[in-house]
Automatic annotation (TrEMBL):
Catalyzed reaction equations: 5-amino-6-(5-phospho-D-ribitylamino)uracil + NADP(+) = 5-amino-6-(5-phospho-D-ribosylamino)uracil + NADPH + H(+); 2,5-diamino-6-hydroxy-4-(5-phosphoribosylamino)-pyrimidine + H2O + H(+) = 5-amino-6-(5-phospho-D-ribosylamino)uracil + NH4(+)
Pathway(s) the chain acts in: Cofactor biosynthesis; riboflavin biosynthesis; 5-amino-6-(D-ribitylamino)uracil from GTP: step 2/4; Cofactor biosynthesis; riboflavin biosynthesis; 5-amino-6-(D-ribitylamino)uracil from GTP: step 3/4
InterPro entries linked: APOBEC/CMP_deaminase_Zn-bd, CMP_dCMP_dom, Cytidine_deaminase-like, DHFR-like_dom_sf, Eubact_RibD, RibDG_C, Riboflavin_Biosynth_HTPR
CMP/dCMP-type deaminase domain: residues covered: 7-131
Protein name: Riboflavin biosynthesis protein RibD
Cofactor binding mode and count: Binds 1 zinc ion.
Cofactor(s), names only, from the UniProt record: Zn(2+)
Documented EC number(s): 3.5.4.26, 1.1.1.193
Length: 351
């Protein structure tokens, strides 16, 4: 078997990452994973994890190979450590061993406690040549939602808002139409972000004044679970978020029986409500959360250090007065990621 160079290994790993991204909307709570099989400098098989509960990336890549006899002379590249456990599907490490693939190149280790290095060990014990850590940071970044969920036991939290040049998020109002700060393009991208999230959250004031539906309309994909905080259950029932069309969670201090697609969850609002909410979302396997406002809710996520990334649209218009935009603390950094979207948002992540 010809030895591969670091440049080649990175090239194939980049392809794994590219393939994996196709699973973004359908794999949660599983991670996105891509795999490529290379024989004598030629890709002979590719695959990715398409949907939670279905075949893993390695299985799809192996299935795609036309001449199975080539596997004995191949290298399998996979962005995540092959699994070693029986979950909804059997262990990928066993399949790789059974198919006699001699060399495995892995992007990063699986943080899931059932795997966590055991897949790598299984392959080594079977005498296979294993390389770990090719494009490791990129592979970890690819599954940052999965890593956050499995290590911090809460969803990966994305904050999003648009602010005026003088740092206001909205005018002061008691009703009426919200001011539109965002451009049509970012409004469309918000729908893309919604389709990529397991859940979307707004505070009481936003639900009341904006009456948002929080659904995906200007993009293709599933509607996220809607979440609203309504401490005293004072929001009117005819708001769009209560239309029963999409599963909706209402966090409240009251007790209220479930209605079609609307679940009321009681928490103690006097003792760190966000922490209690995160616990409920973790139990419900909600791996990613998009927080769309308002300013007060966004600020409480920031103040509680409960966020991972933020998309901030800095608009050229001036509002002169109104509701102050959230203030970031110092613990953030600009990222080189999301090249295309960086033309429209400031993308920052927490450090
Ligand atoms: C892999 N390749 O493509 C993925 C892996 O319930 P299951 O059987 O689908 O297993 C889910 C776990 O398997 C998930 O938590 C993660 O640790 C790993 N995901 N592993 O070898 C893949 N998606
Ligand atoms: Zn697997």
């Amino acid at each position: 078997m010809a030895k591969s160079t670091k440049m080649e290994e990175e090239k194939y790993m980049r392809r794994c990452i590219e393939l994996a991204k196709n699973g973004l909307c359908n794999v949660p709570p599983n991670p996105m994973v891509g795999a490529v099989i290379v024989c004598n400098g030629r890709i002979i098989g590719e695959g990715y994890h398409i949907r939670c509960g279905e075949a893993h990336a390695e299985v799809n890549a192996i299935r795609s190979v036309k001449d199975e006899s080539l596997l004995k002379h191949s290298t399998i590249y996979v962005s995540l450590e092959p699994c070693s456990h029986y979950g909804k599907t059997p262990p990928c490490a066993d399949l790789i061993i059974e198919k006699q693939i001699p060399r495995i190149v892995i992007g990063c280790q699986d943080p899931f406690s059932e795997v966590a290095g055991r897949g790598i060990q299984k392959l080594l014990d079977a005498g296979r040549e294993v390389t770990v850590g090719i494009l490791e940071e990129e592979c970890q970044s690819l599954i940052r939602r999965f890593i956050t969920f499995n290590t911090l036991h809460r969803p990966f939290i994305t904050l999003k808002w648009a602010e005026s040049a003088d740092h206001f998020i909205d005018i002061e109002r008691t009703g009426g139409m919200p001011v539109i700060l965002s451009s049509p393009l970012t409004s469309m991208l918000v729908h893309k972000k919604r389709a990529e999230a397991d859940a979307i959250m707004v505070g009481r004031r936003t639900a009341l004044l904006d009456n948002p539906s929080l659904t995906v309309r200007n993009w293709y994909g599933h509607h996220p679970i809607r979440i609203v905080l309504d401490r005293t259950l004072s929001l009117p029932n005819d708001l769009q978020i209560f239309d029963g069309n999409v599963p909706t969670l209402v966090f409240t201090e009251k007790k209220q029986p479930e209605r079609t697609n609307i679940t009321y969850i009681s928490i103690d609002f006097n003792h760190n409500p966000l922490e209690q909410i995160m616990e409920v979302l973790y139990q419900r396997k909600i791996q990613s959360l998009l927080v769309e406002g308002g300013s007060q809710l966004l600020q409480s996520f920031i103040d509680n250090e409960l966020w991972d990334e933020a998309y901030i649209e800095k608009c050229p218009s001036w509002l002169h007065s109104g509701v102050k935009a959230p203030q970031m603390n110092d613990n953030y950094s600009y990222s080189i990621e999301e090249h295309f979207e960086r033309q429209f948002w400031h993308y920052v992540h927490r450090i």
